[in-house]
Every structure is written in structure tokens, then in C-alpha cells.
Amino acid sequence: MSFAERIKNPELKRTVSELNTLQVNLGRLCNLSCKHCHMEAGPNRTEIMSREIMEHVLRVLKNFKILDITGGAPEMNINFKYLVSEAVKLGVHVIVRSNLVILTEPDYEDFLKFYAANKIEVAASLPYYTERDCDRQRGVGVFKKVIAVLKRLNALGYGRDDDLILDLVYNPGGAYLPPDQTELEREYKSRLKSEYDIDFTRLFAIANNPIGRFGEFLRRSGNFERYMQRLQAAFNPAALEGMMCRYQLSVAWDGSLYDCDFNQAIDLKVNGVNNIKDLGYKLECRDIAFGEHCYACTAGAGSSCGGATA
Length: 310
Ligand code: SF4
Ligand code: SF4
What we know:
Blueprint: E1 21-25, H1 51-61, E2 66-70, H2 80-89, E3 93-98, H3 111-117, E4 121-125, H4 131-138, H5 142-155, E5 166-170, H6 181-196, E6 202-205, H7 212-220, H8 224-233, E7 248-251, E8 257-258, H9 261-265, H10 295-298
Parallel strand pairs: 1-2, 1-7, 2-3, 3-4, 4-5, 5-6
Antiparallel strand pairs: 7-8
One iron/sulfur cluster is lined by residues 243-245, 259-260, 262-263, 288, 290, 293-294, 297.
């Protein structure tokens, strides 16, 4: 049965009337080339959001409570600070999804203070709390650099003060579902504190979506069918309510509109107006464009950019 056919309540096939979050992908350029990257981002990618598209983002942003900035490494977009500063002026809560490693480069040294001064929520990928497992996914030397930046974030109050939120993001190292998020958060907190004196606010456990580099890996290793069957067998109707596509709109580097980052990666556009340049202030409730990769969002405890949903 297709994913859409599994949704019996027609309300759950549509967005809610008041969307919360505008998720904006600033481009595919990244300093890393992680094995699980569904965007297939990397140092050789040239797709970058222009200032013109950002102006449209800011025009539409007045309808939203949260701006969720992603990439690539979003900091590598030359207009990144402009977008963040203008969003903060609008009173919108800003989340930046950072790989943190970029912030060890000389050109980006002042970004952490910029984040703290603007009370930006930082969501940082850390696939595991051990060096071996982390570096296997993200590249040699990544873990040590992330730990160094986490220490600097803690020194600024991140993960320790209530208004400086530091999220860590876990995703599995292979073709299996994430473990229980609450239990894993406890483990992360205990290990990072005892070994590195690091604090963070909360952990998001995210399931790998079978697209992009992870999808290629599944196909190469002959695991694609098995992983899809695992996701389908773990389908949890209770996770439908919290699917992130029901509460957000996702904007690509060129202004194209999607229901989520995963649909963006496979170029499955939203129903209706599908470029931010043509979007009016009033956002209509819309039917969500589903595909079979959506099973990754409803397996087990559910999965979204904010972690488990059920
Ligand atoms: S997963 Fe994130 S840090 Fe890694 S290559 Fe993709 S965008 Fe860059
Ligand atoms: S992949 Fe996107 S469209 Fe599909 S369920 Fe997940 S958030 Fe919704």
C-alpha cells in the first residue's frame, strides 16, 4: 500500500491552516560531504540562495513564528548574517542547523558571538558521542572539531542558559531506526558531561531518509528494499499528526517551494504556487505531496527536524 493510502484521515493529508515554520535552505555548498547527507551537499556544489530570493523570504516570513535555516553549511552563504539579522528584527525565532566544523575556520570565528547576541537556537549534528562512530559518518577529524566548538558554545552560555538553546541531532549510522530519544538523550548527556564537560539542551533523534547519499548507499549495499520494508512495518499512525510538513513550508536556494527538506532533495514540489517569488502574504492550506520516502517520518516514534513526533 502506498504511503498516502495509509493515511485514513483526510485532515492529516493537508497542512494546518496556520503554519509555524519557514524552513529555508541557503544552498548545497558545504565544507563537509557526510555519508548520510540527503542533500548531497559538499565543497563542489555551487547552488546558493541569492539576496533577491532572501528578500522574498523576509517578505513572507511575517506569516511565521520560526525561521529554520539549513543547507549545506548555511554559514557559507555570503548573505547569511543579513538574513538572520533581518529575521530577528521581525521578532521571529531563528534556528540555525550548523555542522559546527565550519565555525573552526578562520573566516567564521565571530559567528558564535553573533549567534549568542541574537539568541539564535543552534541545532548541531552529532551522529554519536564517540569519535569513531561520528567520524565514520562525517569524515576524519570532525568529532574533535565539533567538541571544541561545543565547548565554546557552552562558554557563551549555550546549553546552560535558558535562552541559549543548543540542540544535538543524532541519526543512525546504518539501515536501522533510531533508538528511544529520551533514553538516548540521557546517554548523550551523561557521556558528553563526564568525558568532555559539555552540556546541551536536548537531543533530536532523526531517522535516515532513503534518498540522497543514504539512498545511494542502501542501493549499493543491497539494503534498499529491506530498509523500506522495515520502515513500512514500523508505520505508526500516531506519528501522522506531528509530521513536520503539516506545520511548515520549505524554501530551496532558488526559491522553489516544498513541503519539507526531503521533498526538496528529490524535487517533489508543493501543490499550488511553487516559487516564493509568486507567493502572496496569505498562505493557503494545501494538500501535501507525499512519496514512499515519507515512511521514514512515521516509523516507530516518528521523525522530523525536531526529532521524534509520537
Ligand atoms: S549532512 Fe550537513 S554537514 Fe554533512 S554534507 Fe550534508 S549539509 Fe553538509
Ligand atoms: S518526507 Fe516530508 S512530506 Fe513526507 S511525511 Fe516527511 S515531512 Fe511530510
